Queue: 2 jobs
Job 1
Amino acid sequence: MAAHKTTLCLILLAACLAAATDGKLSPEYYSTTCPGAPAIVQAGVVAALKNETRMGASLLRLHFHDCFVNGCDASILLDDNATFVGEKTASPNNKSIRGYEVIDKIKGQVEKECPGVVSCADILALAARDSVVYLGGPSWEVSLGRRDSLNASKEAAEVSLPEPTFNLSDLAVNFWAQGLSFRDMVALSGAHTIGMARCTTFRDHIYNDSDIEPSFARSLQQFCPPRGHDDVLAPLDLRTPAQFDNSYYVNLVNYKGLLHSDQELFHGDSADPIVRNYADEPAVFLEDFAKGMIKMGEIKPLTGSAGEIRKFCGKVN
Ligand code: HEM
Ligand SMILES: *[C@@H]1O[C@H](CO)[C@@H](O)[C@H](O)[C@H]1NC(C)=O
Ligand SMILES: *[C@@H]1O[C@H](CO)[C@@H](O)[C@H](O)[C@H]1NC(C)=O
Ligand SMILES: *[C@@H]1O[C@H](CO)[C@@H](O)[C@H](O)[C@H]1NC(C)=O
Ligand SMILES: *[C@@H]1O[C@H](CO)[C@@H](O)[C@H](O)[C@H]1NC(C)=O
Ligand SMILES: *[C@@H]1O[C@H](CO)[C@@H](O)[C@H](O)[C@H]1NC(C)=O
Ligand SMILES: *[C@@H]1O[C@H](CO)[C@@H](O)[C@H](O)[C@H]1NC(C)=O
């Protein structure tokens, strides 16, 4: 009997150990190797957001732009050098993605505690969740164990990331290609309840589109002229720009989406009922957003012996 128990334990232990290296992410991944990691990440995020609230939006977007380009593997963090061109200068990222220094600083603190253990890709996933929570949004459990890529692809970044000129079917196809549903697409777009966009990304919408409330368009035209001032910023959610709430959808129902792609979700098409539901029922949105983030965070992770744990997020070891 005792012998049987021991055998059973050994079999289960082997199964558990196999699972840990078998391409499965787990919230407990660092519980023996670096139990303090999630708290270090959270403290770093809180410090960064206390200094500048917008950084929460920037960190959320950083994780998204990592995951949509060959999976959540920190490929976006690799710096260009004389012999290597990565994703940082790809058109959706260049002069647009922010937060690299915040991640580098957190990585340095985590390395001090447990050198060579915690991946940059996992830090991005935790920082996105912690940012949303700090700004009043939903929480979710982040599974861990992603490893960092040995390469990056500027071309893939330009092909895989959605653009603000996209129509509804372009958006649906783009998310579907990542294994995300139409509903996931509508829910994850609610990330635009925080953060800012540059004039160059919404100019055509405020001058040329008809699915926009006229006084809203005029007020934006005051500082985003037909030409020039490309980098002047407007909040993606004018009502509550620093609060993670459902007001993005309330804006859409009132034809006050900032980007062309935002208003595509509500202008007499198949996403309208979902948008109305999120505008009326904040809890439904917050729950769907959290579910969507879990799915997005698990796109094609590198696990087992694939990739590496980078020492510095900007450079392969
Ligand atoms: C649905 C397709 C999407 C399109 C076309 C899109 C496009 C954009 C554009 C053009 C900007 C402004 C960039 C700039 O002016 O430099 C932006 C900002 C932002 N996006 Fe998206 N996005 C999409 C989905 C998402 C998703 C899924 C997330 C996260 C889950 C996200 C999070 C953000 C955040 C937080 C910002 C503000 C960043 C900051 O203030 O630093 N977006 N997006
Ligand atoms: C604080 O935020 C400002 C922008 O508002 C930025 O220039 C500065 O580098 C940040 N400082 C720290 C320590 O993060
Ligand atoms: C990226 O932006 C910089 C300006 O900050 C510009 O000089 C450079 O040409 C851009 N790179 C690409 C590849 O577009
Ligand atoms: C990195 O990716 C590029 C573009 O896909 C490829 O040409 C290059 O050979 C890769 N480098 C390594 C070291 O795998
Ligand atoms: C959406 O845009 C694509 C091109 O990006 C076009 O082929 C398609 O016809 C458009 N769909 C609708 C419904 O306008
Ligand atoms: C609006 O559309 C016109 C005609 O297609 C085009 O010439 C112009 O560049 C577009 N954008 C703006 C900001 O007016
Ligand atoms: C350039 O960056 C790549 C990717 O991080 C790295 O493999 C390579 O060693 C770097 N080269 C130099 C000279 O730093």
Note: Residues 1-21 have pLDDT under 50 and may be disordered.
Job 2
Amino acid sequence: MANDQRNLFNFRYCCCVLVFLSTFSSISFLYWSHCSKCCYSETQTAVQEQNRTINLLTYPSAWNNLNFPSKPPARLLKVALFVKKWPDKHRAGGLERHATTLHLTLVERGHELHIFTTASSNSSFTEYPISNLKFHLSKPTAAGYLDQAGVWKQFQTENSAGRAFDVIHTESVGLMHTRARNLTNLAVSWHGIAYESIHSDIIQELLRSPDKPQSNLLTQRVKKVVEEVRFFPRYAHHVATSDHVGDVLKRIYMIPEDRVHIILNGVYEGVFKPDALKAKVFKSKFGIPESKALVLGMAGRLVKDKGHPLMFQALKQILKENSTIRDNVMVLVAGDGPWGERYRELGSNLLVLGPLEQAELAGFYNAIDILVNPTLRAQGLDHTLLEAVLTGKPLMATKLASITESVIVSKEIGYTFSPNVPSLKKALYEVWEDGRVILEKKGQLARERGLKLYTATKMAAAYERLFLCIAHDREYRRDYCKYQQQVG
Ligand SMILES: *[C@@H]1O[C@H](CO)[C@@H](O)[C@H](O)[C@H]1NC(C)=O
Ligand SMILES: *[C@@H]1O[C@H](CO)[C@@H](O)[C@H](O)[C@H]1NC(C)=O
Ligand SMILES: *[C@@H]1O[C@H](CO)[C@@H](O)[C@H](O)[C@H]1NC(C)=O
Ligand SMILES: *[C@@H]1O[C@H](CO)[C@@H](O)[C@H](O)[C@H]1NC(C)=O
């Protein structure tokens, strides 16, 4: 720093001298060489500045933008994870999918994971034959949450027996703030905050049919936000899973910037990738004619919140009014729920596949030309979007801030629409008019960008670095909180 300032000073000084001397043209030449040397040294300083060290804790963008070493670190951590439910490996949505992808990747990297979660009432808990992964099961409360007193006791027992935990991670309020408040080596990941949900409440109210009563969610949600603003700061570190949520946590929830870190969700890049053979096999298995000019896909639970009533109306109208589209478009629906039956009413253009296992889901993404996600739930980043992106498919989704700021950031990657039937129809027509060739191009761009941001490896490396940085041991943290940013 001192060096930079000196160079800057010299530079200014030289240039002043140069300007001054140039008015006396006869002697200015004598001083030129000295001045140019100063100017040169200033240029060098500028180049060195590009290789600067940044403090990760105050890094304002998604950590996914940074490159962390692929080799596991010299220091392996003992990590406690609190998560309401640990899902069956292949059938996980949302928060649970995040929890398994992240923590199983950390286990693979050699860290010791202790997972505090509820025992499935089914007693069909999947055991993993891995020595550095240990489950601490407990009976859920009547509402299905972790029994706080019980898990806290389990945690303390494990924490005092042998090696203490280096870091504690809670998925949402798995560990509640009442217990978490004194832990400085703790990070909470938010997968849905009340402020973001206000947008969903507004949409739902606008879509409400006049014969249904107004939901009191509209007024209660704001109270919920105030409550969250009060208790969130009790957690030491916060991970926002989208850029938008990061901004809200800092601005609306007023959490200091060095305690809010953006790490976008990631999905398995080894599973979700372009594979022409898989597309062919999938199409032939489900009898999807290769002659169809366009195949749209939707995946996830087929419920109202996910925008299926809107999509149903839009498709119904388009299929009725446009015979070209009716003859050439196929819509694949992966998932189940009440809207599955409704979609079947639309006839042979719609194929409702039911829920798919992970491997089959990879075939599904390959078989489609575009993924349509009409969700009305403003809650972080939907995994289906990221899986489609890594498979090289463009996206079409609702204009929700987490999606438009972190995934569909431009028209080159996909299409966005407002959550109403006319806007959705307009976007669907645009997709049809653009056609397969343009969609393929958008899909390629989406994948190029996605590989830099949304891989499971990226996500796990970012969390690992955050954990190393906030871990108990002060000696190590100092180095792990620094990052050498290389430019060029
Ligand atoms: C920046 O860092 C990289 C890697 O450490 C190094 O190869 C490069 O020479 C550095 N550039 C400058 C201008 O110091
Ligand atoms: C138990 O598992 C079966 C099949 O996996 C499922 O149909 C059932 O709903 C589960 N019951 C509970 C209580 O989770
Ligand atoms: C946290 O620290 C406060 C003040 O030291 C103490 O009163 C409280 O019992 C602690 N809470 C927990 C859950 O350890
Ligand atoms: C269907 O829509 C497309 C795209 O807007 C249009 O080019 C075509 O003429 C329409 N076909 C029919 C039969 O309405």
Note: The chain has three domains: 2-50, 63-266+457-484, 276-453.
